[in-house]
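Lab channel / #folding
Pinned by the channel admin:
"Please post every new chain as: sequence first, then the C-alpha cells as a reply. Keep commentary short and put observations after the output so the thread stays searchable."

First post following the new format, from NK:
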Amino acid sequence: MAQAGGGERIADAKPGDVRVLATAAIRIPLDAVRAEASKAIGHPLVIEYGSARGNLKDSIMAGNAFEVALLLPDVDEQLLKASKLKSLGVAIAKTDVAIGLRGDATPDLNTPERIRTAMLNANSLRWSDTGAALFTVNKILDTLKIRDAVQAKHDISAQASSLGPGEYEINIYPLSEIMPNKNLRNMGPVIPELQAPAVVTASISANTPNTAAAQALIKFLQGPTIEPALEGNGFKR
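Reply from TO:
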C-alpha cells in the first residue's frame, strides 16, 4: 500500500521550494492539484508521502526541516508538545476507513458479528500499524475482542500470499487508498459502529523560514480548487 511512501524526499528540495510531508491517504487528491497549488503560492512543492504515525512523525521528531505537514490530529498533538509545530493543524478533509478484499470469496461485512466471523476466517489481514486507518482497526479489534485471535494473520511485511478458491484477504485502509488499488475489491466503508474516520490536518513547522508560503498553501488546501479531487477519491470536508 501507499503507506510505504516512495518518490520525492524533502531532503532533495532546492532553496525556495515548499517542503511538504503528507500522509499517503491524501496522495491522489494532492497530486491532482499540485500544479495549481504551486502557482497559487508562487513556489514549487516537494512532497514526501508516507505514514503519518510512522516515518513522517519520526522525521519531524528527528529535526528534519519542512514547511507544511499533512498528518492526523493525534500526531499534531505529539508534535506540538515537542515544539515542532507553530500550532495544532487545521482540518483539510476526512475519509472513512474501508475494507478491500483480495480473493474470490465475498464475506458478509454488514454487522459487527459478521465482520468478526469474516476476520477470523480470513487467510490474511492487512493494515498499517502506523497509518491513518489505525483508530478504526483498533476499534474493530477491541470491540470484537479478536486482537489476540487474529494476530498471526496480520503481517504487513510479508509478501501477499496466493489464494485458492473460497479464500480471501481483508485489507483495512482509508477509502482514499482502497479506491485506486486495482488489486482489491472495494467493499466500502467499515460499518458506522466500528468506524473512526481519518481526518487529515495541515500544520506549519515551528522552524520554517517561509511561514508566508506555508500559510498560503494551507489556505489553498482549504479552498474550492481541491474539492473535486477530494470528493472523487473518497474524501469529504
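NK: The radius of gyration is 18 Å.
TO: also worth noting, Residues 211-222 form the longest helix (12 residues).
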